[in-house]
Specification:
alpha+beta, Peptide Deformylase, five-stranded antiparallel beta sheet, 3 helices, 27% strand
Length: 230
């Protein structure tokens, strides 16, 4: 997920550092893994992080439901850290595995404000929304649909159950941007793009805008030495 600078806000809850992990109090507790960590909480080594290519719409991988992760092993931890590195580099506040061409139910999120260190990485493996409350409208963007932003109606507050980086079950309740980001990324895992959350008129307008973006991107690839107005 991408969003404008104005949308970045602090994560609700108390954040404390404990043995390299960040914990936000909430339903069932939440483990956050700092992106700068060299190993997981159980001491497993994590190899050097790699920047991955982000898949752009249209691509069938973006509309294909993902398969659950059976075991959180070293390969999944490596995937998580590569996804985090890619998300921060983009930059974005969330990234789902299908956006880098991997059909597994894995997503990473960090809604830390732009001017603060990116140390609160939320890892959701096999996430499912188990509770919703209220309504909210938020301007969303998507790293797989760059330069297109549109207001989307979502649940104001959601509770998500997932596995953390150590394969442990936890629950997190989020509001505002965190709620929106979790819903956006879980949609990706279900093969749903944010186009599908728009009204017919908004969808048509956004898709037309995106066609122009694709033309701009193609021109920029062919003329890397030139600057164009976006």
């Amino acid at each position: 997920m991408a969003c404008s600078d104005d949308d970045l806000s602090s994560l609700d809850g108390e954040i404390s550092m404990e043995t390299g992990l960040f914990e936000v109090t909430g339903t069932g507790g939440l483990n956050l893994w700092a992106a700068s960590s060299k190993s997981s909480a159980n001491g497993s080594e994590v190899s050097r992080m790699t920047l991955l290519d982000i898949v752009l719409h249209p691509n069938d991988v973006l509309i294909t439901p993902c398969q659950p992760v059976e075991v959180v092993d070293a390969s999944i931890r490596k995937l998580v850290m590569d996804m985090a590195e890619t998300m921060y580099d983009a930059p974005g506040v969330g990234l789902a595995a299908p956006q880098i061409g991997v059909l597994k139910r894995v997503t990473v999120i960090d809604i830390t404000p732009k001017d603060e260190p990116k140390e609160n990485l939320l890892v959701l493996i096999n996430p499912e929304i188990i509770h919703r409350e209220g309504d909210i409208t938020w301007e969303e963007g998507c790293l797989s649909i760059p330069r297109v932003y549109e207001k989307i109606d979502r649940s104001r507050k959601v509770t998500v159950r997932a596995l953390n980086i150590d394969g442990k079950v936890f629950e997190i309740t989020g509001e505002g941007l965190l709620s929106v980001a979790m819903q956006h990324e879980i949609d990706h895992l279900d093969g749903i793009l944010f186009f599908e959350r728009m009204s017919r008129l908004k969808k048509k307008r956004a898709q037309k805008r995106y066609l122009k973006v694709l033309e701009e991107l193609e021109y920029e690839r062919e003329h890397p030495e030139e600057e164009i107005e976006i």
